[in-house]
Design brief:
This protein has 143 residues and is α/β, with parallel strands linked by helices. The protein has one domain: Rossmann fold (3-Layer(aba) Sandwich), CATH 3.40.50. It has a five-stranded mixed β-sheet, sandwiched between helices. α4 links the parallel β4 and β5. The radius of gyration is 15 Å and the shape is globular. The N and C termini lie far apart (35 Å).
Length: 143
């Protein structure tokens, strides 16, 4: 199965959820983010920082936030969607760490679409090589 290289932000929630999704400005307008937090997130994405969105409940907006951040990425950044349990990270041999974001639907063992176990270790090895990630996870506290 080939690695998905994406140029549009609709990947995360599926094509059926792409229309009407909020932008970063929409998240500020609806009170999800304040202006300073939105600006900070934009700066972090522009500087190719890794971002992990975590919240306890389902449908808290983790994926919505990260999908909005895709719109803020400089066009020079390549986006690679990881393939959950099927991910072998073979794309590492062809991708350039300094210009590549790894998109992780979730760090979890809940479904085959999510990364867990050895795949998470490989992900963090890739981060050590200079790749960046956008990922979600469920967590009730920072600990």
């Amino acid at each position: 199965m080939p690695t998905t290289d994406l140029n549009t932000p609709s990947w995360w929630g599926g094509e059926d959820r792409a229309s009407g999704r909020p932008s970063i400005l929409g998240l500020i307008d609806n009170g999800t983010l304040d202006l300073r937090t939105g600006a900070l997130l934009w700066l972090l994405v522009d500087r190719k920082s890794s971002i992990l969105a975590a919240a306890g409940p389902q449908l808290a907006g983790k994926t919505t936030l990260l999908t909005a951040l895709l719109d803020l990425m400089p066009p020079a950044y390549r986006k690679i969607l990881t393939r959950g349990r099927q991910e072998d990270f073979s794309f590492l041999k062809d991708a350039m760490p300094e210009e590549t974001y790894l998109l992780v639907a979730e760090l979890s063992d809940h479904t085959p679409a999510y990364l867990w176990g050895d795949a998470v270790k490989k992900l963090f090895d890739a981060l050590d090589m200079g790749y960046s990630m956008l990922a979600t996870m469920h967590a009730d506290t920072p600990e």
